[in-house]
Amino acid sequence: MSTDPTVWITAILALGIYSFLIKDNVVFRLIEKGFVGLGAGYYAALGVRSIMQLGINPLREGKLVTLIPLILGLMVFARFAKPISWLSRIPVAVIVSVGAALTLRGSAQASLVAQTIGTMKPLNSFQNVVLVFGTCAVLVYFFFRDIPDGPAGRALGHVRTAARMLMMVSFGIGFAGMIGTQIPRAVGQVQLIFGRWIHIIPGL
Amino acid sequence: MKSLNNVAHLRKYTIYALVILAMLIPLVKPIGLPVKITEDTEGFYAAMEEFNPGDVVLWDIHFQLSSANELTPQITAMAYHLAQRGAKCIIVSMHPEAYPFALDAMEEFKRLGKDYGTDMVYLGYLPGEEVAVASLLSDMHQTVPTDYEGTPIASHPLMANVKTGDDLTAVVSINTSGPGSWTRQLPSYKNVDLLYASIANTKTTIQTYLDTGQIKASLDGARCTAEYEQLLERPGKALALQDASSCTFLVFLGLVVAGNVFQRLKPSVSRKGDAK
Questions:
Q1: Residue ranges of chain B with per-residue pLDDT less than 70
Q2: Same domain, yes or no, for B154 and B84?
Q3: Which of A93, A132, B90, B266 is least enclosed by beta carbons within 10 angstroms?
Q4: Number of folded domains in chain B?
């Protein structure tokens, strides 16, 4: 067994969290709430540090322009005082407008033009055919919901079926990717409990 | 038929036991399953190999605590590769939870004999997501006047000639939030490549950016990191995870296949629960 108290604490907390797999219990809830509290404290501490680094310190050095974001930041807290709560809308409006303007500036090129060009491929390989057909079929699936009678309607129906199958494949890949992400996380916990804590796994 | 039913309705504790054993046995007694190097990882390695001594790389570390086990091996491997190539690094964490991991990256550089201020600088946590990205690229000294310790960044030799995105060779982003901020803001600065690393399940999102060249190369998840460690000839944490991960994948695959097969084989049940 490990003699390091931090390993003991980490392992016991990990076991406490995994106890949820059996059923919801007091230990799990206690650790969960502790984690939330710890997270809030961590975020607050880092927030204060950032304000000091990016706001207060430059102000002390005479960069008066940092007063503007600092005042806007303080205005957010006006929502706690009812008579002046309207003031909190100003910094939110600034955040939304600046964020939207910056995102829009690059979106047209990065998300629309570049990605559309990316789907315009020569149909000289199976991969390109699947890509072009898949993009068109899924667009058809979402934009043409009323299927008319007749041969055109039947063709549209086949395209919609193919699109649904392609989307199912895509969801399957998403699920496999999710497992691919979760397994290393779980293996890490097994290494902690059986390796660093109770030393069954060699080399840890 | 009863045994078929038992298999189709495995108790959750049996599944937990199978999964734990699949992880534990290869960790106790490594099997040494082969790790085949994929094209994407080779591409990422090649892109990192293109760095020359003196190139300046902005290294964005942007992920949550929950992804640490999958992404910290990437930090170790990339720090080694960047140091080996002699690239200079400006580290920044754009996610509050990434702050300690960025400190780890810096410590890794120090272990590799690199000097703080000359070979790397850590700007600390920078809030503001895309606004912060745009601001940082337009004027680093104005956006982050001091580093994580409160030292003016202008006093570091590395930062003397690095003012805007134009002075960078590349941005390397270990990121779980998607490449959107970088793909939108970086095209304003010519000749700055974007290398992206993330968890396994972002692969489908990243692929579209790789195809268009908006991302030069990507490293996706622990599996690709293990391949990358092999290419670097420096086995690390990701490679050590591979046997256990592969065995657990096989158990999951077996359970999914068996579940579907037995579900097909067993007699269908009517709404009242009577077998037809």
A1: 1-8, 267-276
A2: yes
A3: A93
A4: 2
